[in-house]
Design a protein that fits this description.
The longest helix is centred in the last third of the chain and has 25 residues, at 159-183. The strands form two sheets. Strands 1, 2, 3, 4 and 5 form a five-stranded antiparallel beta sheet that branches. A four-stranded antiparallel beta sheet has the order 6-7-8-9. It has helices at residues 21-26, 39-50, 79-96, 132-153, 159-183; strands at 6-13, 32-34, 58-65, 68-69, 77-78, 98-102, 109-115, 118-123, 126-130. It is of the alpha+beta class.
Length: 184
C-alpha cells in the first residue's frame, strides 16, 4: 500500500475556548477535535454550533504534502470555506496555470502557479514546490473525503461539492492524458 502524498486532517474548534492565539498554536489539542479521529464528538460540536449560526465547521485544516505541513497553525476559519477556496484554486490553476485566492476571512493569499515542470503552492509567504500530477489529485481526494464525511455525519447535502470535485478530477485527468499524448 502506498502512502498518501497529500494528507489532511480537519479539526472542529471547541466553542469558547480560544483566548490566546499563541496558546492555541502551541497546544492545538486543547482546542480542536479531529473530525476523522473523533467523528461523533466533532459532529456533535458542529450540530450544536449550527443551532446558533449558519456555519458549523469553524476549525483548522491540517494539510500536508509528503509529510510537510502546508498550513500554519494560526490559520483557522470555516473548514468548509477553506476547502471551497482550495477547490477554486485548483479549478483556476487547471484553466490558466496560475491561481490565487484568499484564505477565508483573512488577507492571506493562497497560490498555485506553474513554475517550469513543477508547481508552487504558496500560503501567505510560505512556498512549497509540488508535483501537480500528484498534488492536484491528492487535494481532490482529500476534499472528497472531507465532503463525504460532512454528508454522512452532518446530513447536509454535499452533492454539489462532490460533483464539482469529480468534475475537476475528470478535467485534470483528461488534461494529463492529452499532455502525455502530445509528448509521445
Amino acid at each position: 500500500m502506498t502512502e498518501q502524498v497529500v494528507q489532511s486532517e480537519p479539526y472542529i474548534l471547541v466553542p469558547h475556548t480560544v483566548t490566546h492565539l499563541d496558546d492555541f498554536v502551541a497546544h492545538p489539542e486543547n482546542y480542536l477535535v479531529s473530525m476523522f479521529q473523533e467523528p461523533e464528538r466533532a459532529a456533535g460540536i458542529w450540530q450544536d454550533r449550527l443551532n446558533r449560526n449558519p456555519y458549523g465547521s469553524e476549525g483548522f485544516l491540517s494539510l500536508s504534502y509528503h509529510g510537510i505541513e502546508l498550513m500554519p497553525g494560526e490559520l483557522w476559519d470555516e473548514v468548509t470555506g477553506i476547502w471551497f477556496e482550495l477547490l477554486e484554486l485548483v479549478e483556476e490553476y487547471l484553466q490558466t496555470g496560475s491561481a490565487e485566492r484568499l484564505f477565508p476571512g483573512q488577507p492571506v493569499p493562497l497560490r498555485l502557479e506553474l513554475k517550469g515542470r513543477s508547481t508552487l503552492f504558496t500560503v501567505n509567504a510560505q512556498k512549497h514546490r509540488v508535483d501537480p500530477s500528484d498534488f492536484i489529485l491528492g487535494i481532490l481526494d482529500e476534499a472528497h473525503r472531507y465532503f463525504t464525511w460532512v454528508q454522512d455525519n452532518i446530513g447536509t447535502g454535499e452533492g454539489q461539492a462532490l460533483q464539482a470535485i469529480d468534475s475537476l478530477r475528470t478535467s485534470f485527468l483528461n488534461r494529463h492524458i492529452l499532455t502525455r499524448k502530445s509528448r509521445a
